[in-house]
Amino acid sequence: MANPLYFQLEVALTDDTIMVDPASHEDFYFDAGSRFDVEVIEPIEFVVDEGIGGDTWPTALLPQPLFRREFLDHLRQLGVSNLDDYAARIVEVSTGREQLEYRAVNIVGTIECADLALSTFNRFDDLYQFDRLVIDPIRAGGALMFRLAENTEIIVVSKVVAAKIDLSLFTDLVLIPLDSP
């Protein structure tokens, strides 16, 4: 893959990375890619899953997603404009400590652009689990950041955004190159 046009956004997790579970708003699907048609009461609450992980706070918690404020601001400075965000409160139940530096983010927009003839995947009803994901750049239409319609847990960023994400600031982010035909 000489010059990928799109990348999958991931976070490099370690045994020490904090993991969270939703504690409110279970009826809001932040990975659906569509704008909410009702008022969202803030903050959206999460609790630290103290049974796994450690004490390192990542740049982003996926697939919810929760983004650190600095990362959300960084994406907007790069021109990503399809992000609705909401106040989030993450509570460590055992200590009562609260983390307020994250925003619950709704990435508005799904694009059906997986080239299924060139990708390798398993299909479960309408959900695709990809071993190799090939993006059709014509169908992606130059979008800067979106959720893949074939599997909305996959967050895709364009090479324009990927090239400008400051990985020296967000050291745990991983940009996985995706093939194009």
Quick summary:
By secondary structure, the protein is mainly beta. The protein has three helices and 14 strands.
How would you describe this structure to a colleague?
The chain has 181 residues and is mainly beta. It has 3 helices and 14 strands. Strands 2, 3, 4, 5, 6, 7 and 8 form a 7-stranded mixed β-sheet that branches. A 5-stranded mixed β-sheet has the order 9-12-13-1-14. A two-stranded antiparallel ribbon has the order 10-11. Strand 12 and strand 13 form a beta hairpin. The longest helix is centred in the middle third of the chain and has 9 residues, at 69-77. The protein is globular, with a radius of gyration of 17 Å. The relative contact order is 0.25.
Give short descriptive properties of this protein:
181 residues; mainly beta; seven-stranded mixed sheet; five-stranded mixed sheet
Main sheet characteristics: 7 strands, mixed
Helix content: under 10%
Radius of gyration (CA) equals 17 Å
- The first-to-last residue Cα distance is 10 Å
Order of helices and strands: EEEEEHEEEEEEHEEHE
**Backbone structural class:** mainly beta
The number of distinct helices, counting runs of at least 4 residues, comes to 3
Uncertain residue segments: none
What coarse outline follows from CA principal-axis ratios?
A: globular
User: How large a portion of the residues is in β-strands, by DSSP E?
Assistant: 35-45%
Number of strands: 14
Determine the mean pLDDT: 94
Topology:
Blueprint: E1 6-11, E2 20-22, E3 44-48, E4 60-61, E5 66-68, H1 69-77, E6 83-91, E7 98-99, E8 102-107, E9 110-111, E10 120-124, E11 127-132, H2 137-140, E12 145-148, E13 151-158, H3 159-162, E14 173-178
Parallel strand pairs: 3-6, 9-12
Antiparallel strand pairs: 1-13, 1-14, 2-3, 4-5, 5-8, 6-7, 6-8, 10-11, 12-13
